[in-house]
Every structure is written in structure tokens, then in C-alpha cells.
Amino acid sequence: MTRRALDLARKGIGLVSPNPLVGCVVVSDNGEVVGEGFYTYQGVTHAEVIALGEAGDRARGGIAYVSLEPHGHRGRTEPCTKALIDAGIKRVVAPIEDPNPLVSGRGFEELRKAGVEVSVGLLAEEAAARVNEKFCVWHKKGRPFVHLKLAMSLDGRISLKRSVSTALSGATTLKRVHELRHEHDAILVGGNTALVDDPALTDRSNLPRRRPLVRVVLDDRLRLRPDSALAATAKDIPTIVFTASSDQKTAAQLEEKGVEVARHSARDLPGVLECLRKRELLSVLVEGGTAVAGAFCDAGLVDKVTFMFAPIVIGGDEAPNAIGGLGADSIAKALRITDLAIDRLGDDIEMTGYPFLVDSL
Question: Using alpha carbons only, how large is the chain's radius of gyration in Å?
Fold first, then answer.
């Protein structure tokens, strides 16, 4: 039932940020599923309350399986712990504590004080590192979750040669890319990518989302054109350019189009992420290019990677590699990818995992 609660929580993707994904299943004392619910920000009502409402009197003496620790404080709603206690739930099963310091451990404490049995830890890794990975990083690291996504050839090239826009991915992969965009609050590229590819950087998954996908460009030289696709739609879609440039004319032209020009060096990645954190953006999908990908890796600011390989080999000295920057000068300083998942996307291959610093050979 915990897995079902996690599946229900995922129904809130795109609809809950900056709050966590939460699902709940209520099972009666005779083992029957009598209530289910999941949380959406605008729906306000929490997953536990929805599930308890569906269960009614059948919840008394039953078990509530929740994807995250129920909150024991009053926010926009009454504490979920109170609802569970008042409904007569005898046991609550949850994978992990809520990483929010306002909640962490307090919800479980309230339940135990009221005589409710609490079980913690089942599917904990899946809950923390999968369903609510963005929310957990936000609270534990104090910054948005960073997901690096790159499309490349089998030999790791992202285009034919420098300054040439090159489409590598097939239709199935492109659909997957928009699903990834849908999961995130912001999408980020470097100034060169914005200049060469002239991308729209929109979520075209056709899935519901509460807030628009915020577009972010790291562009210290302020080369983003006022007639670009990003500038042309900036009044309708939030667009931020981080720059250290003193080019007042271009800045004014972009701002006239609706682009927010943030006077903050694009090279200061922790500072950029802090600016995004202040906007309550829990997650950022970094889509390149080479320099930006390398900078995030060098800074140790990548929480997840997704590489999409097209079945082609480009070769050549001028074709840019997927990840630039300084790179590792020893295997001990390389990023090893763990929990690697490999999927076929038509003719392409998707590899997704979580990086950590290698300590030794």
C-alpha cells in the first residue's frame, strides 16, 4: 500500500510546487482499501484528508499509508495529524520524515502521543530519492534541485561543430524531454545555446501544471537577441537572463520585451541558484550547453543526470563534447553515476542516474 501511496503522490507532479508530493491510502480494519487521495496546491485539501473523507467511518481502527510524514502544524489547513487522530486511525505507515524543519518528526510525535502506532522506513529510498527528491534537496541543501539533461551522439558530441545548431534526438525522445520539463519549475541554458539554437524552452507535454516553466539564461556577455524566440514570448512566459554585462542598450531592449535582466554574474552558480530559491523554484532542468554543463559539474551542483544518446557517431576535433569545464584531474575527483536506469526511446537510449564524488579507485 505504501507503493500505491507513492503512485498517488506522483499524480501531483506539476501541481504542488513549492510543496511536496503526497499520496495517501486508507485501509480498514478488515484489510479493505476504503479511501485514497493525493495533494494539489490549488486544491488545498491534503491527501490524508481526502482519503479519510472518502473512507468515512470505515477509517476507524484502520491504517493510513502516506508517502510522507503527515504535518502536525497549522499552515493553510488544519494539521493532518489531527484529522488522522480524529478519524480513529490506529496506525500510520510513512517512508520518511518530512525534511521541512517545521514538520520533521513533529507529525510522528503528535501521532504517537495520541496512541497511534507509527511505522517509518518502508520504501524510504524510493520516496526520498525519487518521488520527493526535489523537495528534499530544497530543504536539506537550501537550494533548488539541479537536473542536468543532455542529448548527444554515441561519442558524446552535442553538435556537428561549434556554433551550429544540430538536432540529434528522435520523436520519442523529444516527447520524453517535454515530460522532464513538466516535472521542473525552471529550465536553464547558457547564452551560447540561446544564441545558436534560438530555443523556445517551453513545456509542450500538454500535462497540467500550476505555475509556468520559468526560463533561465546564463549570459554574461548578454548576447540574447531582442528578436529571439525567448524575448518574443517573455511577456507571457517568465524569462530571466543572468548577466554581468554593462550593455545598457541590449538590456533595455530585452526588458521592453518582458525579459527580466538580473544583474548577477552567470558564473556565480550558487548565487544564481539562491536567486531562484528566493522565487520558490524547487527545481531546475539544465539543458546545456557544454560550458554550462561543465560549470555545474565542476561546482558539484548536479543532483541528477539524464543523458540521451542518439545512435550516431559525429567525431571530429571541432565537434563540442557534451560537458566542458575543468573536468576531473583524477578518477578520485570524477563523478560516478549511481542508481543508473537505462531505457529505450525509439532508436535513442536514455540513461538517468545520481552523481556522487568518487572517493577512491
Answer: 23
Q: Please, which residues have CB within 8 angstroms of residue 113's CB and are 6 or more apart in sequence? A: none
Residues of the chain with CATH 3.40.430.10: 143-357
* Grid cell in block for residue 266: 552567470
pLDDT along the chain (361 residues), means of 10: 94 95 96 95 90 96 96 75 95 93 88 95 82 94 97 91 75 95 97 92 96 97 96 97 95 97 95 97 94 95 96 89 89 89 95 76 38
Specify whether domain 2-131 bears CATH 3.30.70.260: no
143-357 classified as CATH 3.40.430.10: yes
Starting at the edge strand found earlier in the chain, the sheet holding 117-120 runs 33-38, 23-27, 63-66, 91-94, 117-120
Catalytic residue among 32, 36, 48, 179: 48
Q: Is 36 exposed, middle or buried (0-12, 13-18, 19+ CB in 10 A)?
A: buried
Cis peptide before 18 (omega within 30 of 0): yes
| CA-CA-CA-CA torsion sign (189, 194, 196, 199) | positive
What's the rounded Cα separation, in Å, for the pair 92 and 90?
A: 7
- Does residue 318 carry a catalytic annotation? no
DSSP string covering 164-188: -------HHHHHHHHHHHHH-SEEE
Give backbone dihedrals phi and psi of 37, rounded to 5 degrees, phi first.
-165, 155
